[in-house]
Amino acid sequence: MAERLHKLLAQAGYGSRREIERWIADGRVKVNDRVARVGDTAGPGDRVEIDGRPVNPARGQRVPCRVLAYKKHVDQVVTRRDPEGRPTVFRRLPRLKGGRWLAVGRLDVNTSGLLLLTTDGELKRRLEHPSYELEREYAVRVHGPVDEAMLARLQEGVELEDGPARFERIAAEADARGSNRWFHVVVRQGRNRVVRRLWDSQGVTVSRLIRVRFGPVALPTGVKAGGWRELDKAEVRALAAQVGLKR
Q1: Predicted confidence (pLDDT) per residue in 136-183, tens digit
Q2: 3-state SS string for the chain
Q3: CATH number of 67-131+216-241
Q4: What CATH number matches the domain at 135-214, 3.90.230.10, 3.90.1150.10, 2.40.50.100, 3.30.2350.10?
Q5: Most buried residue, 60, 72, 161, 241, by most Cβ within 10 Å?
Q6: Whole-prediction pTM value?
Q7: Is 108 annotated as catalytic?
């Protein structure tokens, strides 16, 4: 039975539906040697290629939902290939028999800490979607004077160039002193560089940024930078339940 191409490839673990729709619009996907268009369908007997490489969407139903809690280090990029030759988080991930690893959102090159990767395109899509408002927690070191009025403004909300934003919570480290201070902050938005931009709006510079939690998943302990811990089945179910999925 034929299905929408972007849905079929997402189920097979090749990307989120939105991401695959972009690939189709950019002419990167072919069906039976013809460049696909958004809205096209495909079935078990069709030949599908992404970037000239044959893929097998029919095997997607057999790809289990797996999730890695990856410990990204500074200078790694969250892309499969980097024109500048920088190391990518995809370089040494566990090998898969079907589908591929998909990054849940991104961390910029200067941000370290927790990055989730999954084989499940629908789980990725929902974890990233702003309607679910999953918490992201960061440890952040800032340089510059910080007072209670500033912290109150950051929690009440400030206007950024792409709309209002705020921290849900801010907690100062107990021994924070001087002009370089550590805070833990929580946001519910996956907007580009939102933590840095919130602090920048107050004239304060972020000198270190580490994501320590995404939803119910914490940065793994005992794992070196560039390593990962795979979530067990109960943890995957708990994470999926946060966005209304059964896995």
Answers
A1: 999 999 998 899 999 999 999 999 999 999 999 999 987 656 678 999
A2: CCEEHHHHHHHCCCCCHHHHHHHHHCCCEEECCEECCCCCEECCCCCEEECCEEECHHHHHHCCCCEEEEEECCCCECCCCCCCCCCECCCCCCCCCCCCCEECCCCCCCCEEEEEEECCHHHHHHHHCHHHCCCEEEEEEEECCCCHHHHHHHHHCEEECCEEECCCEEEECCCCCCCEEEEEEEECCCCCCHHHHHHHCCCCEEEEEEEEEECCEECCCCCCCCCEEECCHHHHHHHHHCCCCCC
A3: 3.30.2350.10
A4: 3.30.2350.10
A5: 72
A6: 0.80
A7: yes
